[in-house]
Design goal:
Layout lengths: L3 H20 L3 E10 L3 H17 L3 E9 L5 H13 L17 E7 L4 H9 L21 E10 L4 H15 L10
Antiparallel strand pairs: 1-4, 2-3, 2-4
Helix pairs in contact: 2-4
């Protein structure tokens, strides 16, 4: 087993190499989809189709951020979400609750599955057992818009780099829900 000094040098070298690789990442495209939280049930197919069309235009890897507009009360979102999670509404696997109130609901990435499928889960129209926001099941009494900010990277971008950028978005924005880091 190596001593601490060796491991510190090894870690520094790894971080320096990671830093060099991150500088080479290029954003292929950015898309912001805005939808009314109360119309999610009627708009979900439109949202999913918009993402499918964008996704199919050039395969890639994605980082995404769900953000609520100023007219939505963030504390009420927290209460609604917590109620749905605590009461296992519709037996959904709700994302982890963090100890902060924020306009940023969730920061995530997808590198293996179809991006539209992951968004569908977050909206509340996917499988019950996948940890996600499941917005459709806690939107009651909320009025306003949600922005889905989508960043597309080349499909050859290494997953470790996508995860590092996602973690930076997470630590900078401290979302209300979800967890930092890979599974």
């Amino acid at each position: 087993m190596q001593d601490l000094d060796y491991m510190k040098k090894y870690t520094i070298n790894n971080l320096e190499e990671l830093s060099k690789q991150i500088q080479t990442i290029q954003l292929l495209d950015k898309k912001i989809i805005t939808f009314d939280i109360q119309n999610i049930e009627s708009e979900n197919i439109k949202i999913i189709n918009e993402i499918k069309n964008w996704e199919n235009s050039n395969e890639g890897k994605y980082i995404y951020i769900f953000e609520i507009s100023n007219e939505i009360n963030a504390e009420q979102v927290y209460k609604n979400f917590k109620h749905s999670k605590d009461n296992k509404i519709e037996e959904r696997a709700y994302a982890r609750i963090n100890d902060n109130i924020s306009r940023i609901l969730y920061v995530g990435s997808t590198t293996k599955s179809k991006f539209y499928s992951r968004v569908k889960q977050h909206l509340g129209f996917g499988t019950k057992g996948t940890f996600a926001l499941h917005v459709n099941f806690w939107r009651e009494n909320l009025k306003g818009k949600i922005n889905l900010i989508c960043l597309k990277f080349d499909k050859t971008t290494h997953n470790k780099l996508i995860q590092t950028i996602e973690d930076s978005y997470w630590s900078k924005n401290l979302p209300m829900f979800g967890r930092q880091g890979s599974k």
